[in-house]
Amino acid sequence: RTLRNLWLLSKYIPSSRLQLELVNPELYTHKYIEDDDFAPVNYGMDYLFASVMVSNPLFWMEMQFVSENNAEKLKDIVSFWKKYRLILSESDVAPIGECPTGRSFTGFHIRHKDGEYALVFREAAEKTNGAFVLRSEATRAELLKSNSAVKTRMEDGILRVEFADMRSYAFLKLSR
Questions:
Q1: What distance in Å separates the CA atoms of residue 74 and residue 95, rounded to the nearest whole number?
Q2: Is the entire prediction scored with pTM above 0.85?
Q3: Phi-psi map region of 77: left, alpha, beta (phi>0 left; psi -120 to 50 alpha)
Q4: What are residue 162's phi and psi, to 5 degrees?
Q5: Tally of CA atoms within 13 A in the half-sphere of 100 that contains its CB
Q6: 3-state secondary structure of 132
Q7: How far apart are CA 149 and CA 146, in angstroms?
Q8: Which of 15, 27, 37, 73 could form a disulfide with 10 if both were Cys (CB 3.0 to 4.6 A apart)?
Q9: What is the model's pLDDT at position 65?
Q10: Residue of 86, 53, 81 whose CA lies nearest to 144
């Protein structure tokens, strides 16, 4: 729901002004139905952080309970985010793709005075390919960060992304 809220609100409010929560997926697993596809435990910590990285992330957790594996994932993506947080905070961030439902291809088009980026997600969608219509003259998409194998191509303002895995994200630099 957090990604959906960010996606919907970013149409009207600069995403950097929003403070959205990042949860520890390993806590409170007993509060979710055992076979709930959308329970936080089914998502990697890096994916959860990526879903809020165009906002002002709020660590809504007790950090001492983050497992070593998730702490490493979080350390890695936060280090990456720190390189781009100023750009993200100064950018015009617009929702692209489908409205997040838990089974969609969704994301954000990030326009900065010094360049363009895209942050795209394959939620728990069965198909592997997503198409994102961009108002851009970009002809190339360079993968900067992902938690999955990703193939990209630009065709006439449409970013096509193929993800190897469900619950994946890709942060891309767009260029001519």
A1: 24
A2: yes
A3: alpha
A4: -115, 120
A5: 23
A6: strand
A7: 7
A8: 15
A9: 87
A10: 81
Residue 155 is encoded by which pair of tokens?
Answer: 């065709």
Q: Structure tokens of 18?
A: 């929003």
Q: Are 140 and 173 within 8 A, CB to CB?
A: no
Average pLDDT, stretch 87-116?
Answer: 96
**Distance of alpha carbon 16 from alpha carbon 56, whole angstroms:** 5
Q: How far is CA 117 from the centre of its chain?
A: 12
> Count of CB atoms within 10 A of residue 158's CB?
12
Nearest to 48 by CA among 87, 78, 16, 68: 78
Average pLDDT rounded to a whole number, residues 115-123: 97
- Secondary structure letter of residue 159 according to DSSP: E
d(Cα 49, Cα 156) in Å, to the nearest integer? 31
Dig out the tokens for 149 from the structure: 């194998």
Arithmetic mean of pLDDT, 44-69: 90
Helix, strand, coil % over all residues of the chain, rounded to 5: 30, 35, 35
- Give, for 8, the enclosing helix (H) or strand (E): helix 2-9
Tokens of 176: 């001519």
In order, the DSSP letters of 10-25 are: TTTS-GGG-EEEE--T
pLDDT-derived band at 61, boundaries 50, 70, 90? confident
